[in-house]
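re the bet — no i am not wrong, look at it urself. input seq straight from the record:
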Amino acid sequence: YVARRKQIIEGELEQLRNSINQETDERKKAAKQQEADLVRRLRSAFEKASKEGAEALAQAAVVRAFLQPGASNEPTEKSVDAAGPVSTSVVSAVPVLAAVTVVESLRGLRRAVEGCSRFNGLNELLLAYAVAAARSSPVIGITGASNSALVRVLAEVLAGGLQYRASVAQDMFNTGDLMRSPAVAQQAGRTWAVTVGDGLASAAATGVPAVIELRGANRAPLEALLPELLDCGPGTAGVSWFDGAGGLRHAGSEYPVIWILTFADGKTVFPVPEGLAVSIPLLSTDGWPTEPTELEEPFVPTAISPKCWTELGSAEVSAQPGKSGTVNQLHAAAQAL
């Protein structure tokens, strides 16, 4: 009797075990199916946003209208009494720079590149190529583990250490979205908040190049941003946009502008259009030997003068057959350094 009872119990346990295993397998399959459906929907959404940017932008505008309390397509009059207290504190968009040495000649620029690279332990040739790339195109790309360090050092050589950093979001479909987005400004150990557009304008008001890092630039379709960003710098059209208050703004056509693209990894990023990629110098910080820190005194940030910027861009070199003007200008600027 005991043996039979044991056999019955073991059979029931085996059935229960099989049932649990079957239920677990079904749940795993369902979870994998849900994950696959989610990935498919995300991929489809981003592909649609990339191919149909205008339609996706219109949909985003509709969503924003619902997300904003009291949003309406009709203009409304603002009443101070009805809206409650209004903050009158305004953060100055024009930073007060710390001690900066103005570079007036290519010789002074070479000394700045050498001194800054030695003090920061960065490869001097890499920094020289970064300066040359910034002169050859208003938009450059930087990859590698030390991309943030190279952005900071580049700002110390060209813009007195003043740099701006903004994170690119998936819903940036035009330069207006970018100009109104928040950015972090840094200089001489100070940090404050601005918008990208205010940073672009304030750098010009200060008289230094605007060094702006667009972190995760490929999280948005770059064909919606690059044509306008490539048209920045002295003598160009610059950028126009409506600010948060509805005012029409313009900047980026008087002083040098250096848009630095850093990139994100993942399945939901956008590819860089081939036609625009040829206009963007791309630097990798990996593989360069590091230089030991040799300077005991801190490096005093430098700001390149318009005269030196023009001189760097006027460097002559024999054009390479089959190469674009950007590539030839990059080689010319690199040889000048």
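see?? The longest strand covers residues 182-187. told u. also The radius of gyration is 27 Å. so pay up
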